[in-house]
């Protein structure tokens, strides 16, 4: 067999980023220019009226220019916006019997025969510094000694979490299964046949023509990737309802080996699921919780350091697990920085864009070792949902965005209360903000998720109405929100 060693292709990521950045910069500048021009024309018209200039030509000329600008703004593709509404969402409220306190977890680990003292010491250290509290949950199969990880256990876990979250969403929104046009289910590590989306269709008897999709291997970004996928499908399917269901099945992801880089998921991953209803129907305009402002995603799978930084593989004994290396954090930082660079030019005020553009020019042509100016995202965003995959990930993301502890509180508290729930964590975090009644009408919420690949995705939402009272308190935080935030202990 002849193996041909192909030369490594040059990365085009940087060029693509500059290209995308240029497009969005031009779009942003054009939008501001059109707005300023429109205001200027209205100002001229006011002067003409006040000075009582009689020639009709003045009025016709000004009005014609104004209509041309208005038509350009509405018809130019990059400015077109079809409203996508987040009607409501539900998070799986975990049963009390599935609670996995650290002391219980360690006690069970000691009873597992194939782990030695060094491994047990490693597990204790990870739990101590992980940021997880005493009320996180594991599925029933992982409470056995030793833990069970059969296909049957994984299916039962999927039934409990997915059905509960989906059913709660239907009850909240008073939506019939027949009203669902698009169904997207994501789970990174468990892909049964029939698929998880088929399992939901079978259980709730969805329509024959419902569009079903199943996402796997997308890591912690999968939930928001499903949202982006749904809103793209809706561009060609008006008047549609889409439900996105997110979970991670832990039963089949359990690692019974001794490789420490593969044991992190055993220690920090916990049970959870979410279901979200989005729609492009106009009837939801007044009572949907949020409206989508922007969706943006990017990836760095072309970079071997990031690609192999979090990788599912077999260890030296042939036991399958998920490897997490230290190098992945630097790759994730670069992935987040690329995403934020493009996003900043779309949502920030004009002055912040100018400062950012000047810093890019200075770094590229004058002083290459200087750092880019980090825009003040708090001038455009009021609330930040940073994916609570772990304390290091939260800190890396906050470092890139220059955010203080006040803005990382929801992520840290979600990690403490529920652990790393992979793709569904971001919705438990938004539920935390709602339970605290912090999200006000008109506020913008930025959901930022990073995951294996590495990949990064941002969704920006605008709050559409007041979320308070019983509605805010009925989510997964109903029995514990008064205990948070926990200071200095997580």
Automatic annotation (TrEMBL):
Q: Give the first-level EC class, as a single word.
A: transferase
Catalysed reactions listed for this entry: a very-long-chain acyl-CoA + malonyl-CoA + H(+) = a very-long-chain 3-oxoacyl-CoA + CO2 + CoA
Full protein name: 3-ketoacyl-CoA synthase
Q: Which domain of life is it from?
A: Eukaryota
Q: In which pathway does it act?
A: Lipid metabolism; fatty acid biosynthesis
Report the EC number(s), separated by commas if there are several. Answer: 2.3.1.-
Asked whether the UniProt record includes Cell inner membrane among its keywords, one would answer no
Which processes are annotated in GO (biological process)? fatty acid biosynthetic process
SUPFAM superfamilies linked to this entry: Thiolase-like
């Amino acid at each position: 067999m002849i193996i041909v060693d192909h030369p490594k292709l040059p990365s085009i990521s940087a060029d693509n980023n500059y290209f995308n950045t240029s497009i969005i910069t031009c779009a942003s500048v054009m939008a501001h220019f059109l707005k300023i021009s429109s205001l200027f024309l209205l100002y001229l018209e006011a002067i003409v009226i006040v000075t009582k200039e009689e020639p009709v030509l003045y009025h016709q000329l000004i009005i014609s220019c104004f209509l041309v600008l208005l038509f350009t703004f509405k018809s130019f593709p990059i400015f077109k916006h079809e409203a996508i509404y987040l009607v409501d969402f539900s998070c799986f409220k975990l049963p009390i019997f599935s609670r996995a306190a650290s002391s219980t977890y360690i006690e069970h680990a000691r009873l597992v025969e194939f782990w030695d003292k060094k491994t047990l010491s490693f597990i204790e250290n990870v739990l101590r510094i992980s940021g997880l509290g005493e009320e996180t949950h594991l599925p029933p199969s992982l409470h056995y000694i030793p833990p069970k990880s059969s296909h049957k256990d994984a299916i039962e876990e999927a039934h409990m979490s997915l059905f509960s979250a989906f059913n709660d969403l239907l009850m909240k929104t008073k939506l019939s299964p027949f009203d669902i046009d698009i169904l997207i289910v994501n789970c990174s590590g468990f892909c049964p046949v029939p698929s998880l989306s088929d399992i939901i269709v079978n259980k709730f008897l969805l329509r024959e023509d419902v569009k079903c999709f199943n996402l796997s291997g997308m890591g912690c970004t999968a939930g928001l990737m499903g949202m982006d996928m749904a809103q793209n499908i809706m561009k060609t399917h008006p008047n549609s309802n889409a439900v996105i269901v997110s979970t991670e099945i832990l039963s089949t992801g359990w690692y019974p080996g001794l490789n420490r880089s593969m044991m992190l998921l055993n220690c920090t991953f916990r049970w959870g699921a979410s279901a979200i209803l989005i729609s492009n129907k106009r009837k939801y305009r007044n009572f949907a919780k949020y409206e989508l402002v922007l969706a943006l995603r990017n990836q760095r799978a072309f970079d071997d350091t990031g690609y192999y930084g979090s990788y599912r593989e077999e260890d030296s004994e042939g036991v399958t697990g998920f490897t997490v290396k230290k190098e992945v954090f630097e790759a994730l930082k670069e992935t987040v920085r690329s995403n934020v660079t493009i996003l900043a030019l779309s949502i920030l005020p004009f002055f912040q864009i100018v400062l950012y553009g000047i810093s890019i020019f200075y770094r590229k042509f004058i002083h290459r070792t200087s750092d880019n100016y980090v825009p003040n995202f708090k001038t455009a965003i009021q609330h930040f949902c940073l994916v609570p995959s772990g304390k290091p990930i939260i800190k890396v993301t906050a470092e890139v965005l220059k955010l203080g502890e006040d803005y990382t509180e929801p992520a840290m508290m979600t990690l403490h209360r529920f652990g790393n729930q992979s793709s569904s964590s971001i919705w438990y975090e938004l539920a935390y903000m709602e339970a605290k009644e912090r999200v006000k009408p008109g506020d913008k919420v930025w959901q930022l998720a990073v995951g294996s690949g590495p990949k990064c995705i941002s969704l920006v939402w605008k709050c559409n109405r007041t979320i308070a009272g019983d509605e805010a308190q009925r989510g997964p935080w109903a029995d514990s929100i008064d205990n948070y935030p926990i200071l200095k202990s997580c």
